[in-house]
């Protein structure tokens, strides 16, 4: 009996925090705090389209490719991305919070990946090289960025012609962005939509930079 009351209280507390955070996020773009990184360290067993393995598989990676993990957080995708492009490939893991990058670095070291570069910067600030990446991933990051147009436009510039950007959103994220919002934004910067996986509450969309032939 006592246990079930504690469980119920914990559930209510969790729901209140989630709802408050969702509303607060609408007023202000708060990045996922470093102390809460454990929430995004592991794959969510309930959402297939948000799992690192699933996202990586959709990207048809090949040895030697150059990949951008934009808003890499604690590196949930960084390691599988690095492993899937081989030693001749390269991954750039970019995040605005040094604490997230430090955790991602630790993980790549443990996994023995030597093909990852870490960049401490905000997406949209103009730090990325032009026409450099074969693929870019933006996994549950978009809603945390104040100037989303600038961020997506920077990604368009950073990809090679024919390069693919995967944007991943899941309803459990307080910063969730709808499919329509994401698609309208990406198309307005010049991307073409190439593929969609999942459903309206949890999805991966591939956008291609035109000019790949
Ligand atoms: C919810 S976490 C997702 C982490 C990772 N992509 C994943 O799926 O496990 C969002 C991350 O985006 C980062 N972020 C927020 N705004 C950013 C920006 N303008 N530029 C780069 N990273 C940003 C945050 O610091 C945080 O690490």
Keywords:
6 helices; 23% strand; globular; 7-stranded mixed sheet; alpha/beta; 213 residues; binds S-adenosylmethionine
Describe the structure.
This protein has helices at residues 2-27, 52-58, 78-84, 98-111, 148-158, 179-189, and strands at residues 66-70, 90-95, 116-120, 133-139, 159-170, 192-199, 202-208. It is an alpha/beta fold and 213 residues long. The chain has a single domain (31-208), classed as Rossmann fold (3-Layer(aba) Sandwich). The chain has a seven-stranded mixed beta sheet with strand order 3-2-1-4-5-7-6, with helices on both faces. The protein is globular and about 65 Å long. The termini are far apart. The chain binds S-adenosylmethionine.
Rg calc:
17 Å
- Provide a count of the helices: 6
Kindly report the name of the CATH homologous superfamily. Vaccinia Virus protein VP39
Give the overall shape, derived from the CA principal axes: globular
* Proper CATH architecture: 3-Layer(aba) Sandwich
* Strand elements, count: 7
